[in-house]
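Same chain as my last thread, 200 residues:
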Amino acid sequence: MTETSAATLLSPFGLAVPAEPGSGALSIGVPCPSTDAIIVDDAGRELPAGEAGELLVRGPQVMAGYWRKPGETAAALRDGWIHTGDVALRDDKGWFYLVDRKKDMIIASGFKVWPREVEDVLYRHPAVREAAVIGAPDAYRGETVKAYISLKSGASLLEDELILHCRENLAGYKVPRQIEILAELPKTPTGKIQRNALRQ
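reply #2:
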């Protein structure tokens, strides 16, 4: 991230990078030399191995602050720790794994839903080419899970078929209640799907 100016975590040369058993996601590494990384809850308390929370890092590569923005600096940088906005977890050997972006978390009827977990299931359907999940306003549940997908060339798909696929692989509260099929999902110039554009 720009605020750290250089890497904060890396995979040491010669070591096999482990995968997180729950998601299969590869680790983003261990802290670089002279760098500390911790996972904290919403109250700022450090969490034990295996629990997801916000990733905080500190080290010589962390910025001193945002130029002429003391309020934003105070929100992002506390006691030398940069609050990354990334939700991650650490295993008992010290390897870190990304879960999702904190701002993208969906709260459906009081339950936390990480978009990436739902997207991973959507991508397993043979007709799905691209997938993005957001929280959509819901008068009863607060937010509901909404999926945007594009299909592979020549593929066709009924909404009920995709919902059944999700029900077989996700807890009920994580299953998309709304699905919208687009020809192409909006992306940044580097090819990253823009959830913000879909929310708008």
